[in-house]
Amino acid sequence: MKKTLVVEYFSKIEDTLINQVILEIEKAAVNGFERVVLLIASTGGDTDAGIKGYNYLKSMIDKIQIITFNVGFVESAAISLYCGGEERYAVPTSHFLIHQARQNYSSYTVNKIKNEIKLIKENNKRSISVIKDNVVQSNRKVLEAYYAGTTLSPKEAENWGLINAQTNGIDDNYFKAIGSNYEYFSLYK
Fold first, then answer.
1. Which CATH superfamily is domain 4-188 in?
2. pTM above 0.85, yes or no
């Protein structure tokens, strides 16, 4: 059985937490682990951090197998992190929320707002690019879903090509498939 690191990411997408995931995966790769299973339940958060996580996971494909798993909800910036998996799964009662980047502008100057709008547009482009690169839908369909704000069931996500398959959940059968040679790392906040 493959030596596996199971990482629970049950929090908002934040740079410090993504850095922790990166550190744990780096340690796993150095210590002979062959696979990482990243369990995700996240309402999203920092778009830059989500894309950083995505880029990192994709860069590790030749070094260690990365499997991402939606165990409840993968929303907003968490979609990018989720898409970093070489294999992607979801439990039947989970969902995915795709929407454009947002920002709260309370007490900003006009110049600050202009800069933030530029950043939001760039984040939208990068997020759309990640989604397009990981689904089988047309560019038009992805753009429509992204700008409208769209929730996908696992079945819809499977039709999109966002997930490889639905599973029956995280149960004893899942851990039998992983084998007894695994370690846990949890991120809760």
1. 2-enoyl-CoA Hydratase; Chain A, domain 1 (3.90.226.10)
2. yes
